[in-house]
Sequence to fold (324 residues):
Amino acid sequence: MNIKFANHLNCLFHREKPIKLTLDALHVVDGNECFEGLLICEQCNIRYPIIEGVPILVKDFVSYVSHRGATYGSWLLACKTLKMKNFLKEFAYRLNPEGVSNDRYEHDGHWFGPYKWTQYDFTFDDPFLKLLKRDIKPTELYDRIIGRMPLSMEGLALDLGCSMGYATLQLSHKYSYSVGIDLSYSSIREARRRMSQANIRNAEFCVADSVDLPFDALKFDLILVLNLLELVDSNKLLASIHRLLKPHAEAVFADPYDYNREPRQLLELDGKSFRELLSDSGFEIFEKSRKAEAFIPWILKIANRVYLFYFVDVIRASKVSKHR
Fold:
């Protein structure tokens, strides 16, 4: 994590009274990158670890690592400082060994590779892409959405469920600062690696929960929500977005409404019902999005001979009233 980003977090962080978010930088690389450390909220006394440069802003750290047993073990082995090793060991005693699992969106899970291919690793020599009648890039969804956004060089953008950060980094060319969040530690670490490779200095990435963000209200000029509805409670998600947006600021939603990928019991939505839910949740849908659903191609490569091909709906809306 770039040490300067701690100053941005002090402006963004959720607080009922003025507080300071203290950075305890345990291991610093190149003078301005905190590779390992702790962010300490002086109001709630929660310690948020920074591991391999990734800030992990989750309130229930025990629950988080219990779903990432292999990742948690790798952290313990790779610690650079005794203080971080002791911090991590505190939570080992609270884990129920029988309840430890490995999230499918982490490095060794089912979904890490498909998203990495879609955002960065595809080539047009791919057998499936060569079959298509026109050159459809797997990143076309992100490129079309962000390409149509006007410049807002004083604005602050938030990318929810950013995966490996392709859209977040594109937003950094349109906004003064962009922040990407995702619950997958492996994805955020990859996003930060790509950011460093591209030498982008007005973006940052954090591990955080889209429906329980620690950020303060009324902070963001744009919130991007791509392919997230089937993973979270949609009512909680819209409440979180509504709270974080400035008055009349914009949110962009893109989703294939595929509720078969994840074993979760969620309210299943389609283009019509989600538009109704948006309108009932304090948002006004832009006229073009209100008239008709979009059908933008989006491709995930699941295995060497297995692909998911979606037509994704896109909705632009603005915050106009209090959330019911």
Observations:
- The chain has a mean pLDDT of 90.
- The chain has two domains: 5-99, 112-319.
